[in-house]
Amino acid sequence: MTGAVDAGEKVALVSGGSRGLGRVLVTRLLDEGWRVATFSRTASPFIEATRASAGDKFWWSTADMSDPPSLRDFVGDVLRRLGRIDLLVNNAGLLHQELALTMSPAAVSNVISVNLVGPITLANACARPMSRTGGVIVNVSSINAVRGYRGVSAYSAAKAGLDGFSRSLARELGELNIRVNTVVPGYFDSDMTARVTDENRERIQRRTPLRRLANVNEIADATLFLCSSGSSFVTGQSLIVDGGITC
From CA 13, how far away is CA 68, in angstroms rounded? Predict the structure, then answer.
């Protein structure tokens, strides 16, 4: 991805790597030879196990997507410990389901902070060291940014903002050999969809041309494609991975 840099020297930063898609991305990047840094608000059994198995190839610390100073501090710590950042995957997010008419200003602010301000903060912080070596930024959006759904208006606004930010950032950073894209997942088995009722799950599957939800590895496949040299001439794009539900 950055010319002569050995695969074992490349550093990936994945936000929210303790569970779900983030956990899968951390595992697969480590398997591919990357050094990986990630954060979450608390540790998990996965984090502790990976610390033990991956050694100095893996680094975790606490940080909070709603707290921009903690994100900037985390990026600084990654640079001091691992020396560089070649890849940022802005994976961490927060889904809050509530009708707009009843949603409090504090809840709206938190959703926008975690899903938009936090990723912007991380991208800006990581782009600075990438400007010297080149790199890749992949922002994880949502089909809620593409099609309206009840009860997720603030979340949809944040993810749509993330898509717009990605396109503009791609324009700004292209001449520095930094690619910026978004992956746009549809419904897939995750903590976010665990609370979906059986009735709603069946409705989603009926409306999806492929007649099922994705599994997390299918979303990871698309994300890792945008991280790889296989997409070396792709920037400013949104890759929708939704089984056709938005077509």
Answer: 16
